[in-house]
């Protein structure tokens, strides 16, 4: 029978399952992490668990936190397991499982509880995994969205905030007023210059209600940039059954992930940091080139295969990669148009990195899904595809494939695949996107008129022409004809 996961059951786990070799009761919290989802537990929490297992950094244990109603359900699941999680690495050469114990608490999903946890002087880092769309960026200007209702609320009610940024401000204010050192704020989201974006959101929100606090934060609080990477599918009954049947553990919130992890961070932690370099993290002076490499080649690659694969009816990413046309389309777009926008990194081969990405996408054990890659396109396209397109236009480079990718997304936004099957809405702006996509049948530029997504690119004549031409092929001849046309250079 499967063992129900909790602290008292650790000694009863099957021998093949790894588990903490350290005394969890001796851990001391040093980090509050907001957004205890699958990626965080497969990545940051896993790194810390391995560090603690070496007998290092045990005053950097995690306290979980959440700001959304759905976070309460995760808290309940993890509380019943004494904050333990089973992480299964989906290595095609053989799966392996480890129970990790680096989280020691998860505060109630209540703003005042989160603020109190952050305000504790023992906490030296507040880290975030809140998704790419969670930073209140105005797509039209790429600046801070001061008009967003959540921001307006927090600016008017700084002692009763709704957003994580309002909670960070309230906690920093308490620490400043108490004479305590501020914590470092560390974004772990897939954003270009995520630390700078996070700093802008925090300080601009502070500026709206307390300019003196904003000035103090600019002078005293660090926001290091970081690059994070580990493909981590959503957990479903499939994954829970795998953990139970294969490893003999009943876990209400297991995580499955690929066996690859990467974490590159700017070494800017004034109040100290865990020695994560001992477990494979890399600390550098400037993370921007590594960050851009990952965002454009990996995340941009995900976007490139997502929409044509969905239109062709592929469900799993590895099945899409087994489709010769999809695999050829990915490599061609990457090598012709995405990689050329990147600056060289000493010691890094972009060809080798692309080969690694292709092999990771093709891993059948991961079970990553095309619907997951298609999620939230109105937030992801402006971060993973459109900046590459803007750089290519600025440098007068080829944009045919990037325009084709946007054309695939437009056709996907009609919400039917090529066989006529309905595609469920998966974007907060799904209805508006569908309206623009359907209107593009009569006027291709109607899709680009969505300025919230496209900003100034919407009126770029060269992009308009390429997009209209590539969209016509998709609409009239289909995905495969569009890919063949691009591959042949026509």
From TrEMBL:
Residues 286-472 form the Mannitol dehydrogenase C-terminal domain. Its EC number is 1.1.1.-. GO terms for molecular function: oxidoreductase activity. Pfam families: Mannitol_dh, Mannitol_dh_C. It is an enzyme of class 1 (oxidoreductase). Keywords: Oxidoreductase. SUPFAM superfamilies: 6-phosphogluconate dehydrogenase C-terminal domain-like, NAD(P)-binding Rossmann-fold domains. It comes from the Bacteria. Residues 30-278 form the Mannitol dehydrogenase N-terminal domain. This is Mannitol dehydrogenase family protein. It comes from Paracoccus fontiphilus.
């Amino acid at each position: 029978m499967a063992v129900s996961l909790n602290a008292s059951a650790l000694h009863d786990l099957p021998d093949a399952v790894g588990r903490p070799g350290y005394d969890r009761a001796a851990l001391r919290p040093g980090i509050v992490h907001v957004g205890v989802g699958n990626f965080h537990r497969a990545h940051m929490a896993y790194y810390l668990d391995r560090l603690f297992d070496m007998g290092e950094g045990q005053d950097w244990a995690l306290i979980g936190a959440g700001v959304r109603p759905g976070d309460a359900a995760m808290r309940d699941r993890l509380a019943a397991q004494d904050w333990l999680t089973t992480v299964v690495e989906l290595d095609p050469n053989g799966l392996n499982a480890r129970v990790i114990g680096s989280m020691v608490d998860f505060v109630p999903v209540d703003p005042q509880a989160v603020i109190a946890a952050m305000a504790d002087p023992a906490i030296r880092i507040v880290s975030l995994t809140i998704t790419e769309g969670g930073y209140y960026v105005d797509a039209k200007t790429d600046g801070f969205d001061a008009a967003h209702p959540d921001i307006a609320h927090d600016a008017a009610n700084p002692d009763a905030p709704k957003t994580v940024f309002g909670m960070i401000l309230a906690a920093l204010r308490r620490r400043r007023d108490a004479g305590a050192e501020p914590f470092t704020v560390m974004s772990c989201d897939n954003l270009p210059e995520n630390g700078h974006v996070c700093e802008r959101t925090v300080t601009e929100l502070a500026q709206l209600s307390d300019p003196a606090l904003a000035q103090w934060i600019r002078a005293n609080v660090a926001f290091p940039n970081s690059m994070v990477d580990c493909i981590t599918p959503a957990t479903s009954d499939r994954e829970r059954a795998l953990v139970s049947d294969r490893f003999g553990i009943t876990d209400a919130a297991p995580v499955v992930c690929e066996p690859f992890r990467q974490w590159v961070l700017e070494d800017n932690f004034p109040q100290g940091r865990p020695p994560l370099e001992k477990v494979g993290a890399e600390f550098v002076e400037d993370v921007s080139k590594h960050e851009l490499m990952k965002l454009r080649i990996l995340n941009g690659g995900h976007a490139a295969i997502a929409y044509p694969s969905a239109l062709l009816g592929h469900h799993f990413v590895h099945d899409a990669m087994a489709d010769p046309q999809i695999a050829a389309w990915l490599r061609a777009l990457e090598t012709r148009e995405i990689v050329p926008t990147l600056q060289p990194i000493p010691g890094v081969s972009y060809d080798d990195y692309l080969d690694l990405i292709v092999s990771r996408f093709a891993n059948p054990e991961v079970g990553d899904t095309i619907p997951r890659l298609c999620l939230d396109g109105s937030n992801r396209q402006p971060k993973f595809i459109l900046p590459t397109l803007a750089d290519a236009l600025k440098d007068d480079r080829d944009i045919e494939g990037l325009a084709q990718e946007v054309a695939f997304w437009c056709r996907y936004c009609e919400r039917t695949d090529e066989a006529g099957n309905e595609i469920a809405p998966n974007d907060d702006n799904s209805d508006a996107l569908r309206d623009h996509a359907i209107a593009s049948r009569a006027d291709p530029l109607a899709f680009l008129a969505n300025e919230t997504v496209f900003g100034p690119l919407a009126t770029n004549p060269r992009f308009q022409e390429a997009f209209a031409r590539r969209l016509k092929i998709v609409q009239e001849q289909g995905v495969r004809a569009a890919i063949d046309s691009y591959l042949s250079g026509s």
